[in-house]
């Protein structure tokens, strides 16, 4: 079910990632290229080393925090149009994380949209940490499929928050700290925005604090959460909730916390076996990606007659789309999934000369 390349396709697959031949630029390439359009700042989409980078204006501070202050970055406001080599390009909210964008391309009478990662709530809930998903009408829609199976269906956010609060409160009664694992960019901010500080103190790992600062600089409103000291006083942690990246679950840092109750917030927690494999006390189902109904709603809202599926359960979603009468296939791209996002503590700096990504062409 790999997508055959047509001569006039606006987006094709190359080893570096998605490529627009007419515009001579890549979308979320994972190898260094001359011109890159980045949908958002997660490490499986935003890599260092590109000569020119275009991204949404709200993503600027997080991208620079992750890829270096000297990132050769040109930004666009949502809906702003730039034309390059006859291709009209604009960015539109994806609802995934701060600054996440869908890439709309128009040329030769065709409109394509590359969605990147996106979240479309099945419960019409507000997303406090980023702009909501905006359906963009198109002829061809390139969709992710991270959670492209019917088993993945998200509960209302308030229900998940209530579960977290009950777990935290029960641990506090026992005098235990609660270690809640969530990706430092995206998940951590959603959790922080939903937590009730009346239950107890909230502390964050320095990696989360760094992303919090970048998100606030990008316009996100977040409650204050002090950084947990490298060598904390265990007595002061009793009843506290500690927010940290998943990579620290069995680290020297986590062993300094004493005997915390440990939970992981992720869409993967919808499958019980994943909770066992993670070795956590609790798993809370919370994702920044669309669930199965959300994928269907988003695809229908585009009005696209042709859908290209990538990143996740590609074959399964392709079969379902074909059963609905749509022309569907996949690029067969190899990418990272949600649980492989980079939560490295060290942020690499990138030394590069300033450029504009899409300079005027003759």
UniProtKB/TrEMBL annotation:
The keyword Cell membrane does not apply. GO terms for molecular function: exonuclease activity; ligase activity. Keywords: Exonuclease, Hydrolase, Ligase, Nuclease. Its EC number is 3.1.-.-. Transmembrane segments: none annotated. PANTHER family: BLL1145 PROTEIN (PTHR11203:SF49), CLEAVAGE AND POLYADENYLATION SPECIFICITY FACTOR FAMILY MEMBER (PTHR11203). This is Ligase-associated DNA damage response exonuclease.
């Amino acid at each position: 079910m790999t997508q055959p390349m047509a001569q006039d396709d606006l987006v094709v697959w190359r080893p570096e990632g998605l490529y627009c031949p007419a515009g001579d630029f890549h979308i979320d390439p994972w190898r260094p290229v001359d011109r890159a359009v980045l949908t958002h700042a997660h490490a499986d989409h935003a890599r260092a080393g590109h000569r020119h980078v275009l991204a949404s204006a709200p993503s600027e501070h997080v991208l620079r925090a992750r890829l270096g202050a000297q990132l050769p970055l040109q930004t666009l406001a949502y809906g702003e149009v730039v034309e390059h080599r006859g291709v009209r390009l604009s960015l539109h909210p994806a609802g995934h994380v701060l600054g996440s964008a869908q890439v709309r391309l128009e040329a030769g009478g065709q409109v394509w949209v590359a969605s990147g990662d996106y979240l479309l709530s099945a419960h019409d809930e507000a997303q406090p940490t980023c702009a909501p998903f905006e359906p963009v009408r198109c002829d061809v829609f390139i969709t992710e499929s991270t959670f492209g199976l019917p088993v993945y269906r998200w509960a209302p956010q308030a229900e998940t928050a209530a579960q977290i609060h009950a777990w935290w409160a029960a641990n506090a009664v026992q005098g235990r700290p609660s270690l809640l694992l969530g990706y430092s960019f995206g998940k951590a901010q959603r959790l922080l925005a939903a937590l009730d500080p009346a239950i107890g103190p909230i502390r964050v790992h320095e990696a989360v604090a760094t992303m919090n600062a970048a998100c606030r600089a990008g316009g996100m409103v977040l409650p204050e959460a002090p950084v947990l000291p490298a060598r904390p006083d265990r007595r002061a942690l009793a009843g506290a909730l500690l927010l940290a990246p998943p990579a620290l679950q069995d680290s020297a840092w986590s062993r300094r916390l004493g005997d915390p109750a440990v939970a992981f917030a992720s869409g993967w927690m919808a499958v019980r076996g994943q909770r066992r494999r993670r070795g956590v006390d609790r798993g809370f189902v919370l994702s920044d990606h669309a669930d199965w109904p959300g994928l269907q709603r988003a695809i229908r809202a585009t009005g696209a007659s042709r859908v290209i599926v990538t990143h996740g359960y590609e074959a399964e979603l392709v079969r379902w789309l074909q059963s609905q009468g749509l022309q569907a296939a996949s690029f067969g791209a190899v990418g990272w999934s949600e649980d492989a996002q980079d939560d490295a503590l060290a942020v690499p700096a990138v030394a590069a000369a300033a450029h504009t990504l899409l300079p005027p062409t003759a």
